[in-house]
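Following up on my earlier thread - several people asked me to post the actual chain instead of describing it. Fair enough. Here it is, all 166 residues.
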Amino acid sequence: MNCLIFLKKVFSNNNTNEDISEKDIKKNLKTYLDTFDSLEKNASHIRNKEELTEEDKKSLKNIHNLVKKNNANFKHYISNNNLPKNYEHESFKIYKHLNSVELLLNEIYNNAEKAMDNDSSNKEKLKASEKIKKVNAEYKDKVNDKKEKEIKEFLNEKNIKTNAFK
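Reply from S.P.:
Thanks for posting it. Predicted structure:
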């Protein structure tokens, strides 16, 4: 699966110090969320393979960079503009949640790969397994069903239809 198709779809908005309309924030939230969802589905598809080729690893790195760009662009947008009432807090909550999801998934993936690597010593495998437990504990307050439910409720309340939170 070629991940470069998403390059043009990464959230991008260069507005600064502008009053953002409700219509625009809804559209931009949808774009940001749908982009994240598409990239994450592609990454998940690749991560679920039995063995990763060098091309797969390159694709994962590209996806990770696109997710980082998507997150950074959205954070810049919500930080540097005047959002409508009731959107500022929730937009930051959504950004923080998705950013944490991506960081968590990358940490788990990187350490799971080490834990399952046949070339790793038992000590290295144990260390990687312990790191996964530590990462899960670190992110449990940031990435959980309660946070997702709050985001879904906000999106439903504002009638924002997205593939990321159904």
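The two ends are 24 Å apart (CA to CA). That should answer part of your original question.
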